[in-house]
């Protein structure tokens, strides 16, 4: 079975709908035919200087939400990135074949560094995509299920793998992105030209998977749309409505055409929003319950993570040994 790898940062208490639809739903489907490695990328989260106690708690919370969303720890290795040391070690080797300019061209880095200013931007943030390349290459992953926002990082991973292979001999599998149509980019409710993101400071911009029904309804009702008040699927001119239609369709399974027909006519924005809120709530309810069950049994969560890390290490240590050998590092006697 081919391998896949993906991960999310423990940078908030709850995953948002973009994480769920852009990535997690595909993870669950891919479990059927692939050998999956799903990690909570805590080392990546260090790039935003989190509070230590909060990072610890969010790492558990993120793992519990993987399981709540339908990841089966018997079929998938669910683990914490820092439990497998090979991630940081391979990242160093890859750092040494990454161009400074190449890393500087990453748009996510430019956006984040632009917002923070040079003084508050760490070298860790700069090399973040190289650590991500290490995450992927360690597992010989053929496919990487991510949202559209990760496409450029994945392209860097492919370039690094190809460069390494041609310089030092075949070592890494060159991975392909696996980016779903439709929900590859769930947009912010408050600015539908921007992606929904954990780091958004406006709490009304993101739908959290752990939101209570009342909060959820309020957020979706206040989603920014347009003045036209006719429901149509037009991402260019009506990005807010297009986002709501995509969310509804992805969760309910109804096609966008059917939805547009149902909400045809004047003044149906309120009705559409009400239905989107219902559909979202019906997914959040069972998700939250399963999440709470896992969070109440830390010993079980620790067991799952230990088992996942053990399975991950088996593949990761072999790949790292291959890479160390290829570049000429002498093995420890
Ligand atoms: N809006 C989105 N639509 C579709 N997929 C998305 N992903 C993230 N946002 C969307 C996918 O979720 C996975 C985990 O990504 P992450 O942990 O980096 O989450 P984030 O929300 O992007 O986190 P941040 O901290 O808020 O990051 P930035 O600074 O990028 O906004 C990935 O597969 C991602 O594609």
Which molecules are bound in this entry?
A: adenosine-5'-tetraphosphate
Based on Cα principal axes, name the global outline: globular
Average pLDDT across residues? 95
**Strand order of the main beta sheet, please?**
3-2-1-4-5
User: Structural class of the secondary elements?
Assistant: alpha/beta
Give me the strand/helix succession: EHEHHEHHHHEHEHHHHH
Calculate the terminal CA-CA distance, rounded to whole Å.
34 Å
In total, the number of strands is: 5
Strand proportion? 5-15%
Number of helices: 13
Q: Give the C-alpha Rg.
A: 21 Å
Largest sheet: 5 strands, parallel
- Are there runs of 5+ residues with pLDDT below 50, and where? none
Helix content: 40-55%
Pfam families: tRNA-synt_1b
Subunit structure: Homodimer.
Function: Catalyzes the attachment of tryptophan to tRNA(Trp).
Subcellular location: Cytoplasm
């Amino acid at each position: 079975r081919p391998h896949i790898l993906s991960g999310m940062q423990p940078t908030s208490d709850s995953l948002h709908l973009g994480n769920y639809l852009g990535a997690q739903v595909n993870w669950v489907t891919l479990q059927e035919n692939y050998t999956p490695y799903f990690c909570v990328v805590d080392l990546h989260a260090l790039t935003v200087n989190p509070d230590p106690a909060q990072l610890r708690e969010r790492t558990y919370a993120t793992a519990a939400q993987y399981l709540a969303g339908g990841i089966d720890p018997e079929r998938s290795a669910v683990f914490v990135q820092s439990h497998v040391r090979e991630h940081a070690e391979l990242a160093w080797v890859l750092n040494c074949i990454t161009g400074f300019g190449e890393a500087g061209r990453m748009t996510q880095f430019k956006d984040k560094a632009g917002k923070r200013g040079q003084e508050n931007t760490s070298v860790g943030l700069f090399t973040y995509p190289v650590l991500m390349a290490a995450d992927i290459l360690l597992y010989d992953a053929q496919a990487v299920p991510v949202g559209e926002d990760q496409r450029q990082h994945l392209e860097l991973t492919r370039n690094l793998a190809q460069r390494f292979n041609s310089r030092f001999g075949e070592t890494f599998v060159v991975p392909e992105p696996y980016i779903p149509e439709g929900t590859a980019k769930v947009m912010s409710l408050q600015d539908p030209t921007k992606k929904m993101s954990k780091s958004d400071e406006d709490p009304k911009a993101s739908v959290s998977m752990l939101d209570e029904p009342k909060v959820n309804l309020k957020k979706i009702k206040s989603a920014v749309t347009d003045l036209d008040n006719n429901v149509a699927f037009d991402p260019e001119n009506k990005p807010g409505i297009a986002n709501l239609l995509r969310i509804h369709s992805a969760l309910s399974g109804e096609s966008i055409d059917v939805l547009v027909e149902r909400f045809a006519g004047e003044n149906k924005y309120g009705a559409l929003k009400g239905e989107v809120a219902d559909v979202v709530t019906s997914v959040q309810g069972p998700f939250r319950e399963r999440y709470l069950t896992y969070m109440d049994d830390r010993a079980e969560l620790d067991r799952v993570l230990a088992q996942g890390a053990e399975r991950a290490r088996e593949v990761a240590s072999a790949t790292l040994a291959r890479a160390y050998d290829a570049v000429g590092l002498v093995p420890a006697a």
